[in-house]
Amino acid sequence: xxxxxxCFLGTPEFAVTSLKSLLQDEHFEVVGxxxxxxxxAGRKMQLTPSPVKNLAISAGLRVISPESLRxxxxxxxxxxxxxxxxxxxxxxxxxxxxEFLDMFPFGAVNVHGSVLPRWRGAxxxxxxxxxxxxxSGVTLQRMVKKLxxxxxxxxxxxxxxxxxxxxxxxxxxxVLGADLLRVELMDYVRGNLAPLPQDEASVTYAHKIEKAxxxxxxxxxxxxxxxxxxALVMGPGTYTSIGGKKIKIHKTQxxxxxxxxxxxxxxxxxxxxxxSVKCSEGVLNILELQPESRTRMxxxxxxxxxxxxxxxxxxx
Length: 316
What we know:
Blueprint: E1 4-10, H1 13-24, E2 28-34, E3 39-41, E4 46-48, H2 51-58, E5 63-64, H3 73-81, E6 86-90, H4 98-101, E7 108-112, E8 120-121, H5 124-130, E9 135-142, E10 152-159, H6 166-189, E11 205-206, H7 222-231, E12 238-242, E13 245-260, E14 267-270, E15 275-278, E16 281-291, E17 297-298, H8 299-305
Parallel strand pairs: 1-2, 1-6, 2-5, 6-7, 8-11
Antiparallel strand pairs: 3-4, 7-9, 9-10, 12-13, 13-16, 14-15, 15-16, 16-17
Helix pairs in contact: 1-2, 1-6, 5-7
């Protein structure tokens, strides 16, 4: 069987793993890559290509970076010339038109970071952890115009403990997503796999993470705050304040998960290993944190320059 000609669309590191897999697979030929335009990054805000663009250029692939596929009909004409049989979309970051989806004999498929139909939308990995899900995974779906509503071609599942953070899960799912392309995509193209419709009654949505969510609310439960800290490590992170100064919170641990508390935000224990804080339900230990204009550090390091005592309050 001849190689399957692939048009790849993706932008961040999550997509790099899938593109690498396709490039290394003798059954596929990546004929072109579409990614987001270069964006300002770093302290100097220099224009920086996406991780996918860097890989594509190093591999000698054709690369285009339109601001919008919807507003660039000439770009669609260019992609048609590539002669791709299927489009593979992995965290591309733009809405695709029906015209684009219809350009390929086998349509377009998408690697999505959840077990669909749970967590359709922009932030499936983060929202799953924030909700305290015990299971996550990655889905290969046939793309349709409705957001993440396409028929399912394959799923890989993972069991979650209460400590894994979003970045760690991100890396694990990226590998599983690449495996879906290696196995299920090929089975689909060969006609050996029938897509399965999603259960619309089970749909949940993973809305985009907003910066306003980053501030810790100590009148929430210890478990809920712990889950938020784990979820937002991919950005924007979480923070609290003391004495009017922001402190980023990087790692936490649930000390006591139940029991109604008063004095939410009250520091109830301080030692070189953790700082315990009362929540509306339970007590949370802070393990790693970051004061303003400093790097991430352990509690021991933090206390050397920021003495805290039992009875102090976070969130003021």
